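Re: beginner question about structure tokens

> Can someone show what the tokenized structure looks like for a real chain? I only ever see the sequence side.

Sure, here's an example I had lying around. Input first:
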Amino acid sequence: EGLDSTLALTETLTARALLTVDSAGAALRHARRAVMLGPRQVEAARLLAASFAALGERDSAIAVWPAFRSRGGSPFAGWLLESSTLAALGQPSRAAATLDSAARTAPSDSTSLARLQAVRSLVTAATHR
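And the corresponding structure tokens:
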């Protein structure tokens, strides 16, 4: 493990596969490990939040994002994905407020702006449920 430079990626991919087959408990173990190995990797944090959400641990899913930002993760990605997590968990007003923080920290490149628009659509859909 100490010599495997791709272990964080392996743990991330394993967590993704396990979530896909509805094994959230097993996915959570791998996602936690992936975050430990790559604390600023967005996909590892996203899978950790998704694993918590799949297990019904809403507060833990939401708590992933402030922790991600405090470990030096991208503020834009952290706010953006916190917003999408809140929208998925049925908290559209909190999701909208968090999306405002994402918009304030958004890079001006077209990919970031497209990601911001995609999450804005999720938040809007959650508001109308």
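Each token stands for a local structural state, so reading them left to right follows the chain. The radius of gyration is 15 Å.
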